[in-house]
Amino acid sequence: MTARIIDGKATAADLRAAVAVEARRIAAAHGLVPGLAVVLVGDNAASKAYVGSKSRAVVEAGMRPFDFHLPVATSANELLGLIGELNNDAAVHGILVQLPLPSQIDAARIITNIDPAKDVDGFHPLNAGRLASGLPALAPCTPVGCIKLAKAVHGSLSGLDAVVIGRSNIVGKPLAQLLLGENATVTIAHSRTRDLAGLCARADLLFAAIGRPEFIRGGWIRPGATVIDVGINRVAGDGGKSRIVGDVCFAEAVAVAGAITPVPGGVGPMTIACLLVNTLRAACMQAGLPVPEI
Ligand code: NAD
Prior knowledge:
Layout: E1 4-5, H1 8-30, E2 35-41, H2 45-60, E3 64-70, H3 76-88, E4 94-97, H4 107-112, H5 125-132, H6 141-154, E5 161-165, H7 172-181, E6 185-189, H8 196-200, E7 205-208, E8 226-229, E9 233-236, E10 242-245, H9 250-253, E11 259-260, H10 267-287
Parallel strand pairs: 1-11, 2-3, 2-4, 5-6, 5-7, 7-8, 8-11
Antiparallel strand pairs: 9-10
Helix pairs in contact: 1-10, 2-10, 6-7, 6-10
The structure holds nicotinamide-adenine-dinucleotide.
């Protein structure tokens, strides 16, 4: 058996197109142009590439980008000053501070100072709490993208056994909350979990968000299961070049799973598309307009 490859690029392109249609509609009907501020501190190469693609996607979706690139020596108070200005700027509906931040800045302090209504990353404790309480919330983009990919395969996730490996605030925990909201039966595994292979073998839906290259082996996966690989790991490739692999050993897993996301081209493109969805939602909520169902 060879698994169906879940095309995150195509799904993300559809989502981005749907956001662009809605953005055009609310601009024409209400004169509202959603604005996203992206703040980068320092010169981390991967972060620079991420913020570049986010800004391009914002423009393509008919929204307004506000890009800020601050020097690596920026103090926490300087960054908080900018966050305060963006919180008060009516043209800015979403604020994203690219992580990781330089070591002199406490990321948690920065995140808690973003207006929760503009927290399009969904990392503010208020949004995390609302998500955990089953209330409408701006939810983190990567987990939302994972849910959309799983639903593209299954339609409904109700009653399915889901195993989430990883318990970070950015991926694992919010993903588990979203899965509960979809009525899946959820198990969260982490670095102290015993018998990870035994847990994986029970999963109809297996989500890997670990940060260890090709850690999940094909033999652990339940035949026919859906595997969503969040991991992005750079490893040495042929000819001295590096390549990106996921947390799942794709070559083994593709022979066992029913459906699987590739890396790259799976979850990654969905993250940016879901950021656009959150920006649109945030803009509508701030303007008192109905939130489009995308
Ligand atoms: P993290 O380091 O914050 O968390 C990793 C989690 O994995 C931890 O909860 C830890 O308990 C668990 N873990 C570590 N070793 C383990 C082991 N041996 N067995 C079981 N669990 C183990 O990482 P994160 O921010 O959640 O990111 C996870 C991965 O997802 C990384 O590769 C990251 O690059 C990637 N990521 C991708 C996207 C995307 O857009 N595709 C977005 C965010 C993160």
